[in-house]
Amino acid sequence: MPNIATTQGLTSLNCVFLEPDRIELIEERVPEPGPGQILCAAKKSLISTGTELACLKGRFDEGTVWSSWVRYPFYPGYSMAAQVLKTGSDVEGIKAGDRIICPAGHRQYFLADYKEATLIPDSIRDEEAIFTQIAKVALLGVLRAEPAFGERVGVVGLGLIGQLVIQYLNTGGARQIIAIAPESSRLEQARRNGATDLLNLPVAEAFGPVEQLTGGRMLDTIYDVTGSYAVLPYCTQLTRDLGKVILLGDSTEPSKQTIGPKVVFNSVSILGIHGRMMEGFKGWTEADMNGFIFESLRRGKLDVASLITEEASPLEAVSVYSRLAGRKSDLMGVLFDWTQL
């Protein structure tokens, strides 16, 4: 890590998607911090597998958020734990040496708006803190559903966010949590996180088994955390009358997405939620969410350590993304350890 006095002319090794399916590590110069900015050294960063692989693939319908957001060269990542090296003018509450989380990409050194940074409590390790951003997304999904005590719920899409949704539901009084996935390894993780029933099959084949597991009542709420256009029409068939589908994954090809055959007849609600709603949703501020997640981690109410399956050097980025794309189901929480550079 550079000396604070020698940060002028600092260069950073950054992970960049130069174009679809092309990843490179590029060395770029980092300016000195300006007003309201902090200069940071990366410690750990978490790969958001679904989002980042979609950005790497680069195939989006026109008019989607994806098509306007992803412009190459694209800098992936938004879950960073770092140490502050230097602060610019007008920065309050953060000083050199502090550990922070912020929505930065996979970069060795970077500038951040201090208002987007949050101090990491001493009791929370860096590798836990980097889960805060996706833990807030999962929390938003549960808040959007407004669950009642004793509900029967289903979760489709058992990646990091789906697993965290299950943890929240388990501590929130759900009577039954049915995890649905064709990957047995992710189902076992879901069981450890609190799922009461596991269906090792595609969601397209889940109607009969869900009907049997719920005694014909079907689900009060089902969470679609896949981002796949093919999943929604099956989810809407798994709810009871006046049931809810919570969309926590945004399809890159919504032109291929349908809602299913009985949404109106069964009076099903389809409710979307996006991470940009963190400030003010249901009376929560983002600071409230951060504090809640840190406290949940400290008290053992939220477990992210068990979701980590690999720590890699950023120098292995090309190989890591290739393996994620090739056998996504075998890997869960994959993070870059910048201290290895």
Spell out the blueprint of helices and strands.
Layout: E1 11-19, E2 22-29, E3 37-46, H1 49-57, H2 65-69, E4 80-87, E5 99-102, E6 109-113, E7 118-119, H3 126-129, H4 132-145, E8 152-156, H5 160-171, E9 176-181, H6 184-193, E10 197-200, H7 207-213, E11 219-224, H8 232-235, E12 239-247, E13 269-272, H9 286-298, E14 308-312, H10 317-326, E15 333-337
Parallel strand pairs: 8-9, 8-11, 9-10, 11-12, 12-13, 14-15
Antiparallel strand pairs: 1-2, 3-4, 3-6, 3-15, 4-5, 5-7
Helix pairs in contact: 4-5, 4-9
Organism: Paenibacillus glacialis
Protein name: Chlorophyll synthesis pathway protein BchC
InterPro entries: ADH-like_C, GroES-like_sf, NAD(P)-bd_dom_sf
What does this structure look like?
By secondary structure, the protein is of the alpha/beta class. It folds into two domains: 4-131 and 304-340, Quinone Oxidoreductase, Chain A, domain 1; 137-277, Rossmann fold, CATH 3.40.50. The protein has helices spanning 49-57, 65-69, 126-129, 132-145, 160-171, 184-193, 207-213, 232-235, 286-298, 317-326; strands at residues 11-19, 22-29, 37-46, 80-87, 99-102, 109-113, 118-119, 152-156, 176-181, 197-200, 219-224, 239-247, 269-272, 308-312, 333-337. The strands form three sheets. Strands 3, 4, 5, 6, 7, 14 and 15 form a seven-stranded mixed β-sheet that branches. The protein has a six-stranded parallel β-sheet with strand order 10-9-8-11-12-13, sandwiched between helices. Helix 4 (132-145) packs across helix 5 (160-171). The longest helix is centred in the middle third of the chain and has 14 residues, at 132-145. It is globular and about 70 Å long.
